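STRUCTURE:
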């Protein structure tokens, strides 16, 4: 059956924080926007810790991501302000610093080596004595081996941000349809190279649009109607993440985001304004969407090594979600060659929340003009040799799924 609603300027497939952020930015530009997703903000966004951390998220051999991350972090204050809220705290946006700490001598060496690379790339990471670190955060363990302060790594609450984005979209007369898109619509249905003019929903109805943006994470590669030559090499990287409630007698447990290494294993603790703490995150590619008992044990054990009072908190939530990874850990973002009417915005792996403003800006720039040449290296067809495309990033970058990463 055919839906008779009027065509819109843009349909965004996927209502995680990236899709909602894109839809909001495009609605602000005056475009009519429809978002389709059967369960908005229920995937990686639901589990995400929300660290806006271009410095502490910088990893070896990921220099190609650094400019993108820094550009997006710089956009965040304006992006949050554009939601029209009285207070940025409505979205859980906090300019609290990050403290990076190591537990033993091996962790001290690893963090010192990483700082050398961070400084070489123009990032600011200030050393702290353990006494200085514990003066800032008294609940930190006295047994730490090293500490650094990172002033420009902040945080946002992804669940609250997603709710604010959805409200702002609706205020701008955008629409959210609680269904999934299953196929692309073509101007000429039998011609796989013809212009994309909308999507088919899971009940068989259609949404017509001048542009379609696939921002539905792992599902972007499975939607019917993509050209056969297009390779979207997405893989699910599962992670366990915990939420704990701090009793009144221990508040505030911490005021800064704490990122640490404990015997080589990374962990983070992110304080929320509601008196909870997010602890994460494991990374595994075992295909299991269930919470891992071993992962929960590891997170609680290592969190207590850094902040012993974690043992006195109430464990209120254990969550596991899959993040969409790519071979080079960089997003698939932009136009697909020779396919008019289609953009893709997925593959954000552990950086989805951080990269939401820049993803939205890139999509807006592409629709307004030809886009910014700085970001063509992230084109979604860069892994597709057939169809005339060749990889634009360095193929030789190893497929390094590092355990340092946070949920996106």
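SEQUENCE:
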């Amino acid at each position: 059956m055919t839906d008779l609603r009027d065509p819109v300027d843009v349909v965004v497939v996927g209502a995680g924080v990236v899709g909602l952020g894109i839809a909001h930015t495009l609605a602000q530009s005056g475009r009519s926007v429809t978002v389709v997703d059967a369960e908005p903000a229920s995937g990686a966004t639901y589990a995400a810790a929300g660290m806006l951390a271009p410095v502490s998220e910088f990893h070896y051999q990921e220099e190609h991501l650094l400019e993108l991350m820094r550009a997006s972090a710089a956009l965040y204050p304006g992006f949050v302000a554009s939601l029209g809220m009285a207070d940025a705290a409505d979205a859980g946006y906090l300019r609290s610093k990050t403290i990076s700490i190591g537990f033993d001598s091996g962790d001290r060496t690893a963090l010192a080596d990483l700082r050398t690379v961070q400084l070489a790339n123009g990032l600011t990471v200030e050393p702290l004595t353990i006494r200085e670190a514990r003066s800032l955060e008294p609940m930190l363990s006295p047994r730490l081996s090293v500490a650094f302060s990172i002033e420009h790594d902040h945080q946002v609450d992804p669940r609250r941000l997603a709710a604010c984005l959805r409200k702002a979209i609706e205020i701008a007369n955008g629409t959210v349809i609680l269904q999934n898109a299953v196929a692309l619509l073509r101007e000429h249905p039998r011609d796989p190279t013809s212009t994309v003019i909308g999507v088919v929903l899971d009940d068989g109805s259609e949404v017509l649009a001048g542009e379609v943006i696939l921002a539905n994470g792992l599902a972007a590669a499975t939607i019917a109607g993509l050209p056969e030559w297009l390779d979207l090499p997405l893989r699910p990287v599962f992670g366990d993440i915990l939420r704990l409630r701090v009793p009144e007698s221990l508040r505030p447990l911490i005021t800064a985001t704490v990122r640490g290494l404990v015997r080589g294993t990374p962990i983070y603790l992110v304080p929320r304004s509601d008196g909870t703490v997010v602890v994460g995150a494991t990374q595994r590619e075992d295909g299991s969407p269930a919470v891992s008992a071993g992962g929960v044990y590891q997170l609680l054990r290592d969190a207590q090594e850094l902040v012993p009072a974690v043992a006195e908190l109430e464990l209120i939530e254990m969550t596991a979600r899959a993040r969409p990874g790519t071979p080079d850990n960089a997003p698939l973002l932009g136009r697909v060659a020779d396919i008019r009417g289609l953009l893709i915005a997925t593959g954000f792996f552990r950086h989805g929340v951080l990269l939401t403003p820049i993803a939205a800006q890139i999509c807006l720039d592409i629709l307004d003009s030809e886009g910014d040449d700085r970001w063509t290296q992230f084109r979604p067809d860069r892994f597709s040799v057939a169809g005339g495309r060749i990889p634009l990033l360095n193929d030789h970058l190893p497929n390094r799924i590092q355990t340092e990463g946070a949920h996106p």
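REMARK: The helical segments are 17-28, 44-47, 63-81, 105-120, 130-136, 158-171, 293-306, 352-368.
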